[in-house]
Specification:
Glutaredoxin; four-stranded mixed beta sheet
Length: about 80
Amino acid sequence: MTTTGHKVILYGKKECCLCDEAMEVLLKVNASLPFELEKKDITGDRELLEKFGLKIPVIVVDGVEVFKYRVNENRLRALLNQC
């Protein structure tokens, strides 16, 4: 299966229920509209921890922060279909 060429990064941490929910939505969308998906744990990176703190999860699509706390599935699909 080929990808759309988009890169999506989820910034979060372990034992974060909102991060788990966001990942479920990302995986669901990825199953039908493939993209490169990466999860970054902010707890191992002081710079990321200072940047995001408790404002997680943060979802970045192609370098642009598009979601914080929750992922809107329909909006994500629309973003990925734009190019």
